[in-house]
Amino acid sequence: MFIDLTAAPANDPLSIYRYRDSLYAVDMITAALSLDFFTWLEAHPSSLASICAHFGFKERPADVMLTLFAANGWVNKVDGTFHATPTAAEHLCAGSMWDLRPYYASLHDRPIARDYLEVLRTDKPAGWSGDKAAFDWHKAMEQEDFARKFTAAMDCRGLYLSQALAKKLDLTGRNCVLDIGAGSGIYGCSITAHHPHMKAVVFDQSPVDRIAEKLIAERGCAERVSVATGDMFDGLPSGCDVHLYSNVLHDWGVAEVEKLLTVSQAALAPGGLLIIHDAFINADKTGPLHVAEYSCLLMHSTQGKCYSTSEYAAMLDAAGFAPGPYADTAAARGFMTAVRR
């Protein structure tokens, strides 16, 4: 069935996105309170490294946790040292008449809260311990049934978000976008609908490629949107002057993100454009709250997190790109562009 990919919904779905995105944030808070984190921090202002050393945490999940607390106004960072704020001291620490820790005590045994304690200490996504018998989300995407369900979930989200992105992109003088880790291909379809001079190549592994090909045809976009199959870590197709990573990099750790940016740098000609579309933490990691909450979900279930604009800028620069500014789109998402040197 044909869908107008230049249309917009009559009503703002932001609150619906936020409920899903923030789903696990309360369990992150509960896990920290079960360790009496704020009482300790109020007495021992500390660096990230010292916090990790004291509690036995790993850096990635601890960074996500502290970003959530900073976004809520419960910690602040001064010269590399984290402090409990007056709000935390009054309501989240032992000894205050306004102590609310007992209010969360009944939640300590929630399965996701227990998961967070394990993730904080191991840096492994919940339910994945590195052995072949454990659930691995990325391996599961090679299974037809799981891939179809997950791709459908991302497609319905992308229908709205892809249009918000396409409307703000300046693709003057560009010819073809390579949508990397593209899922259903909704972003390639939307970009070509809003920019009639553009073509798109949707790039993903099997069986997602077959799912995308069918959806692209159903949307009437096959004339200008093609599908290529492969593993993005092994190299990318040539011939596109724009690379798009939409809601892809947040699934991966720093080493993998750096690898993907390097792979893009190798496939793009000088002057080529790279676009990162995602939910971004601000440069000083104090919010936005919605994104900090969403980052908890990603930290729980994937190897990644929501990266800050400053983290992306540093990685882009190191990979051979000139980073551009950040711009908002919709539902607490936005994008950064970078030009291949």
Assign an overall shape: elongated
Poorly predicted sequence stretches spanning 5 or more consecutive residues:
128-134
Structural class: alpha/beta
Q: Could you give the distance between the termini?
A: 42 Å
Radius of gyration using CA atoms only: 21 Å
CATH fold naming of the largest domain: Rossmann fold
- Helical residue percent? 40-55%
Q: What is the domain total for the residues? A: 2
Mean pLDDT: 93
- Please state the second-level CATH architecture of the largest domain: 3-Layer(aba) Sandwich
Order of helices and strands: HHHHHEEHHHHHEHEHEEHEHHEE
Tally of extended strands? 9
Main sheet? 7 strands, mixed
Beta-strand percentage range: 5-15%
CATH C-level category of the largest domain: Alpha Beta
| CATH homologous superfamily annotation of the largest domain | Vaccinia Virus protein VP39
Explain what this protein looks like in three dimensions.
The protein has 15 helices and 9 strands. It is α/β, with parallel strands linked by helices and 341 residues long. It has 2 domains: 14-123, Winged helix-like DNA-binding domain superfamily/Winged helix DNA-binding domain (Arc Repressor Mutant, subunit A); 138-286 and 304-340, Vaccinia Virus protein VP39 (Rossmann fold, 3-Layer(aba) Sandwich). It has a 7-stranded mixed sheet, with helices on both faces. A two-stranded antiparallel ribbon has the order 1-2. Strand 3, helix 11 (186-194) and strand 4 (199-204) form a beta-alpha-beta unit. Helix 2 crosses helix 8 and helix 5 runs antiparallel to helix 14. The longest helix is centred in the middle third of the chain and has 25 residues, at 144-168. The chain is elongated, with a radius of gyration of 21 Å. The protein starts with 13 loop residues before the first helix and ends with a strand.
